[in-house]
User: Fold this.
Amino acid sequence: MALEINDRNFDEVVLKSDKTVLVDFWAEWCGPCKIVSPIVIEIGEDYKDQVVVGELNVDDNPNTTMRFGIRNIPTVLFFKNGEVADKQVGAVPKNKFVAKLEALL
Assistant:
């Protein structure tokens, strides 16, 4: 499961979280995003007790998209203690996301 993250709830859900947070920046028209989304949802299920996992539609949420300098999608940002701790740009296999996540737990 992945939370719907947007400009209004971003600070509360992501920056103020006491857990590691994975945010998938995506868009409906983006082909590679359709590959990454099921992986992100799966990771959300696998780590539901340890990590907050969410998706942010870049077209609907321009403020947060610009705030973090998202220029290519899909981009997955990993947050720890309210700061960007790592990122992954582009469609990659699940194990790449998991490795980055595991390093932050």
Remarks:
- The chain has a mean pLDDT of 97.
- Residues 31-46 form the longest helix (16 residues).
- The first strand starts at residue 3 and ends at 4.
